[in-house]
Structure formats: structure tokens, C-alpha cells
Design a protein that fits this description.
It is a single chain. By secondary structure, the protein is mostly helical. The chain has a single domain, classed as Winged helix-like DNA-binding domain superfamily/Winged helix DNA-binding domain (Arc Repressor Mutant, subunit A), CATH 1.10.10.10. Helices cover 68% and strands 10% of the residues. Strands 1-3-2 form a three-stranded antiparallel sheet. The longest helix has 40 residues.
């Protein structure tokens, strides 16, 4: 009986670790998707894009405005995305 409990506790531990890892991978995937989207939107020689355009396109990709904004804010802090002027975004 003690072995069964130990096995159950181990299974729960593995399940929690898997959920944490999957959540981290999802976050990384979304961040990569944001960078790819910004790159696509600035391909035509255009250096900066309007923030609103980015938000519309990210929503079309299935991302909520809140998620897109949070990821964008982190990329700005990490200096991967620049804000050359209010309302515009630019990849570094």
C-alpha cells in the first residue's frame, strides 16, 4: 500500500513538472510568433509599423490583445523591439 502511494505521488510530481514545462514552451512559442509577425510586417522595406496594426494581426493569429501586449512589453524591455515614436514598433 505504501508503494502505491509513493507511485501516485511520483506520478503527480511528474505531471506537475510536465505542465510547467509545457506552459514555458507555449510562452516561448508565442514570443517567437510575435517576433515572426513583426518581421513579416516590416518586410517591405518598412522599418517601423503601427502598434495597432501589430495588435490586429496578432489577434488574427488567435492571440488575445492582452497576451500580445504582455509579450511585446517584455520584448521592449529586452530591447528586441524598439519604440521609435509613440504608437510605432520596430525590430532591433
Amino acid at each position: 500500500m505504501a508503494v502505491d502511494r509513493l507511485d501516485f505521488d511520483e506520478i503527480l510530481k511528474i505531471q506537475r513538472m510536465t505542465q510547467i514545462r509545457l506552459a514555458q514552451e507555449l510562452k516561448e512559442d508565442r514570443t517567437a510568433n510575435v517576433i515572426v509577425l513583426l518581421n513579416q510586417l516590416t518586410k517591405n522595406g518598412q522599418k517601423a509599423i503601427q502598434t495597432e496594426e501589430f495588435l490586429v494581426e496578432s489577434e488574427a493569429m488567435g492571440m488575445t490583445e492582452k497576451d500580445a501586449t504582455e509579450i511585446l512589453d517584455k520584448l521592449i524591455v529586452d530591447k528586441i523591439v524598439l519604440v521609435p515614436k509613440e504608437g510605432y514598433l520596430e525590430l532591433f
